Amino acid sequence: MATTKEIKNRINSVRDTKKITNAMYLIASTKLRKVKSELDQTRPYFDALQAEIKRIFRTSENVDNRYFYPPTGEHELPGSYGYLVITADKGLAGAYNQNVLKEAMRQMSTHEDPKLFVVGEYGRHFFTAHGVPIEQSFLYTAQNPSMHRARQIASLLLDLFDRGEIVKLFIVYTDMRSAMESQAKVTRLLPFHRAQFMAPDNAEPEVRTPFEFLPSMEQVLDNIVPSYVTGFIYSALIDSFCSEQNSRMNAMDAANRNAQELLDALSVEYNHIRQSAITQEITEVSSGAKSMKQNAEKRKKGVGNA
Fold first, then answer.
1. Crossing angle, helix 4-59 and helix 217-305, to 10 degrees?
2. Short-list 125, 273, 263, 240, CA closest to 171
3. Domain for residue 24, yes or no?
């Protein structure tokens, strides 16, 4: 059985751990609020880009562009498929990293010649440890997603796509559906399917109104699509970062609850042992006093008989 000193040391250790997990919870919640605010500030611009692409296909559904499947529809393309996998730089975020990596491995196993592009230290270590070759590892931290970094990633991937080194590009990231639910998600980024940008009949008048494009719709698309791809990657980086922080908050909250339950159990055990020790001391004092009284009475009887 543990002594009161050992239990007290354990209680102090658990309390110190709880301070750390609580601090990590607060840091994650602060980062989550900040990055969601940044995403909200940039979203209108990329929504406008999507509306302009819709306007182009509303004007001419048969416009030809290398970033889109032909009007005949989607079909298999011979060549290498690119996979941009977004992970975190560290763990302590529940199953956040494991879910993304599991989905990435599943997707890459369906094609013979995948080219892997990784964001996040956790993903780099995982793929290196499993002997999966990495085509390009973006070495900057995944903790501070920015438009500049999204533009760098998009520039590299678009260059490979334009040169035909990759014929399809997929992005594997975590979609934060709600504060309680996140899901690893795979989205084909390139080439686009025209149906993604077809304006419905009840679309806003600004989208349905035909426009004249100069010098041509093809060149306008060539200028718009890189910005749209950059925006999509930026949104995926932000979404993944929000999911990571949310997962870390949930993990740290669970750790705090477990620590409190452990502290309650240790406190009960400490009080029981301490109470037992006090009871034993009282019993020993009482027994000693009773023994001294008995000895004193024996001595008195011995003197009286003498």
1. 170
2. 240
3. no
